[in-house]
Amino acid sequence: MPSRIAQLRLSSFRGASQPLTVEFDQNKTVVMIFGENGTGKSTLIDAIDAVSNASLGSIGEKGVGAGAHQYLKSLAAPNQLQVELTTKAGHSWQATLSGRNVRVQALGGHAELRPPVRVLRRSKLLQLLEDQPANRYAAMKHFLDVAAVEASESALRASFTPLQSTWEREEAARSRDETLLQDEWVRERLPHETATTAPEWAQARLLEDVDTLRQQAERLTAIRLQIATMEETAAQVIELGRAWRGARAEDEKAQALVNALPHMATHSAGLIAVLRDALHYVQLPEVHAANCPVCNATTEPSDLQVRLGERLQELEATAKLVDAAQMSAQAHHAANARIMEAGDILTTQIAALAALLTVETPVAMASCATDWEAYRAATPTANEPHLSLLMGCKLAQRLQGCLPALEAQEQAITSRVLMFDSLKSRVANFEEISRKLLETDAIRTRLQRAIEIVAERRKQFIQRVLDSITLEVNRLYTVIHPDENIGLDRLEMDPNRRASLNQRVNFAGHASDVPPQAYFSESHLDTLGFCLWLALAKRSGAQEAIIVLDDVFTSVDLEHFQRITDLLDAEAPNFKQLIIATHSRRWYDRYQRRRDNVHLMRLERWSLTQGVRVFSEKTFVAELESALAQVPLNRRDVATQAGILLEELLQFLASVYECSLPLREVPKFVLGELLNGTSKILKVAKVKRLRPVMPGATPLAPTDPAAWETVDIRPLFDAISRQNTDPRNAGAHYSVSGMALADEEMETFASDALALARALTCPVCHEMPRKVINGSYRGCSCRAHKMELLPVQRP
Amino acid sequence: MNQPLPPTTPTYASPNAELAAEIAQALQEAGLINEDDLSLCEKMLNGTTSADAQAWKVLLETPLYTTTSVAPDAV
User: Fold this and answer.
1) What's the DSSP call for residue A13?
2) Which chain A residue shows the shortest CA-CA distance from B12?
3) Mutation test of the interface with chain A: which of B34, B37, B57, B64, choosing the one with the most A Cβ atoms within 10 A?
């Protein structure tokens, strides 16, 4: 846990041309470093800044360029610069120069973090107000930086974007399918169909018995093919019939010619056959018969061949007729065989067709019923042995005429089947894509909603932080400028730019987008800049921050100065330490008088040979104690210190209890007036305080009434009031009455003033109690609860 | 100047952490994530757990437990 700065050691650092050690009072929250211009205040502040923030400090802000680092070292210093900072907890860090940068390292090997120190210099007072929005954002980034959440937001968008594209594609496909289905419905719906939407219609269509349709179509195809085949066969049969009839006529004609030969001639047919066989026999190469093969008479083979040839020559005309008749008979027989064979095929085909028609006879074939009957009734006769075939051919020819109608019927059924298939496929696609769409849409919608929530919450969060900063700025600003109705109206992120922070101001009740510089006076700007800085420092510190003000307020009027210092007193408990460097004597006097929880340091005139010189300044009580302790007594110092101390005490009481004092243009009161004005309260005032614990004794619990003692203020007041003249006059060379006072009287007066001051101040924080606690007493602000001042109100 | 001080302003040492917790709660209240995933979601938002596009998709795809169902961890 960070702790207060306890010690600062400087060597060859800026104005510290001589080694310098500055001790900070660890019991005081506020440290005031007072010094006139050129005494080294900024050297001390820069030293703190160097160790705490590795900063070049004020020298880095004075436009000396990239070589600013070289001016950190003291003029003509032989050694390297070095700054060492030690905290109350005993941890130390050292800053040195490394190249152009300040390098800080922990001393003693500890791993503690450096105390969080925020330094405000006058030159930076308006920076937050005047900066570009991006720089303003950078200054507040610490409170607004939600980079991890923003990264998640980007990741969510990266997840959402392709899903959105997929969803759009799927939706387009679904819409396209829906349109196609709609068109199909409009185009194909039948008058008797009662569906009112395309999907309803499609679903009804898909209930149709498509298998039966397919069987019908297949059957019609088979019938058509069978008829076509039959027609071809019938054509062949008819052709073969013609050939058969021709062969029969030729056969009959040849037989008639043979039959017309004389009887002898008719016998010659047998003879010709015998002769031909015999000639054929004797002509065989292996036959060398010396005898006739028919009558076995001895003969010359060559003579036999000659004689057989001569006999056949004689019978040639008859032989030709006989040969022709045999050939005609064979042709007739062959033609008959071919027609019978084709007839069998046709008969089989007709039987096959009849089998196909047993399931169902197509309407288109109804007109062929009589042809079927004729075919079945045909009985062959001797004259018309192929009558049945003839009727079959006629049937085939009639059926041929049905083919277009059959084809149309088949086409109609096939179309319905195809449409069913197409519809089924389309509906399946439509359902599939609709299902996918639903799935995609579900996660898409969730991602979209998540993005909306993340973005909305992020904006709200940032605005909430900014609003709370604005609220705090205005609360602080109102303390300095009560009832003026001006301040910060709104801080908000620029919606059109990344990491850019806009500000709106309120001027006399008018919120405006214009920069505050447009309306605010310079001092109003200074205080607004200060309040903004203080609010941010307060927010970032969580009571652990040390804030350092380097000569921030130089030209504010008395009224606003008092409000600013009051504000800082009130805000000091929110910080670990408040270090104020100033050349304002007014501010310095205020703390010297009030002695509240403040460590006063005073810087004396700087010189190269002596460097920065720091002295812890005493409060009025301490100064009076020192003056009284001097031997010999310096009556002028004692008189002056005692008078100032009394005036401060009484003026404070008069303001707290609202006592009556003379009204003057410039409120300045003499001691007698202050005593008169506060007499009513001081005569009745009592202080309850915890009894001092004796060495070795056990302290009583504060809840035990015996632990407390009550001190009446009246005797202390009476002792001071008994003085017959203003002892303070002893400090004035022109005062005759003062000269009349003895040193002893002077010492008594000073001791009485000191006693009153000790009685009325907290032994811990040395602050006079002024806060009304629980409505029952007034207490100081250190919360040690060592004393209670009564009464709460003036009698 | 004795006006009362406002309550101590909390420190936003990690605005991410505070906002992450707030958003995770909002996502759960919106019915986008299960109560069991609240901690994971917060870590993803806070950057202490990997949270790329796929991780977010997986988290938000997780079906929500209905009032009558049982969380997987309890099964």
Assistant:
1) B
2) A143
3) B57
Does A155 contact B56 at a Cβ distance shorter than 8 Å? yes
Does the predicted model carry a pTM greater than 0.90? Answer: no
**What are the domain boundaries of chain A?**
5-134+464-617, 150-207+415-459, 623-790
Which long-range contacts does A186-190 make (Cβ < 8 Å, 24+ apart)?
A: A188/A419
CATH number, span A5-134+464-617: 3.40.50.300
Q: Nearest-CA neighbor of A575 among A550, A530, A531, A540?
A: A540
Contact at CB, B23 and A453, closer than 8 angstroms: yes
Torsion angle of C-alpha atoms A314, A318, A324, A328, degrees rounded to 10: -150
A145 chain-B contacts, CB cut-off 8 A: 15-16
Count of all residues that appear for chain A in the document: 795
Domain spans of chain B, in order of start: 15-64
pLDDT of residue A63: 66
Asked if B30 and A453 come within 8 Å (Cβ–Cβ), the reply is: yes
Q: State the ipTM, two decimals.
A: 0.81
Distance (Å, whole) CA A567 – CA B2? 9
d(CA A185, CA A81): 93
Instruction: List pLDDT tens digits, range A570-602.
Output: 898 889 999 999 999 888 888 876 655 788 999
Q: Does A152 touch chain B (CB under 8 A)?
A: yes
Residues of B in contact with A446 (CB under 8 A): 32, 60-61
Measured between its terminal Cα atoms, the distance across chain B in Å is 63
Dump strand ranges (E) for A438-522. Answer: 486-493, 501-507, 510-512
Name A121's bridge partners: A550
Residue type, A373: E
CB contact under 8 A, A159 and B56: yes
- Contact call for residues A519 and A512 (beta carbons, < 8 A): yes
